[in-house]
Amino acid sequence: MGSLEGKTAVVTGGSSGIGLAAAIRLAAEGAHVFVTGRHRDALDAAVDKIGAATAVPGDVADPADLDRLYDAVRARGRGLDVLFANAGVGAFATLEQTTAEHLDLILGLNVRGTLFTVQKALPLLNDGASVILNSSVRADDGREAFGAYSASKAAIRSFARTWANELKGRGIRVNAISPGTIDTPAIAGIVGEERAAAVMADFATAIPLGRVGRSDEVADAVLFLATARSSFMLGANLYVDGGENQL
Fold this sequence. Notes:
By secondary structure, the protein is of the alpha/beta class. 44% of the residues lie in helices and 16% in strands.
């Protein structure tokens, strides 16, 4: 039996990259995983890879879509044991270039979406559940043109501390992960296919391990926080960054 046998998990942004890798790991340990994302075709393909999973298309920035997600979880009748609030967006602009639309996009999905993803899960979370928020090493540095994105990830790190304090009475553990530079399809989506390899190689030069990370390496950290192996961790931030922000 796996460490999550019979448990129910939710992974937002679960159709690719870190979210998909995490969903695969959670399912491999016995959880039934509800995955959500904005594109039905990508979600259906993800379910084929995950196995024990249910796809619920939706945008975490839309409260009605979150309601549909949690209605599906509620219908299973077993509550919710693991929530990985992973969905987010990266778009970059300097202070001079930042527009209201840019700020609304980043904060609307990364901050507002994460808050309501967790808030709307509260009635379903079983006592002793694990909530994992996806922050970033960019919350800690001042990399050029990452202003709004970095601020949104810093907000998520702050949420983890506050919500851990608020939910500890139910035995619910809230923690964050902070991935470094990870090789995911999102990179090409942001900088374009033709530039992706060069951008990743440039980032790798700043990583002590000499390479960018893999989604499955982040997924292993998610699994650790999802299980009793991390039973004495609360409000923590687990870096998965190859030493990028540590050395």
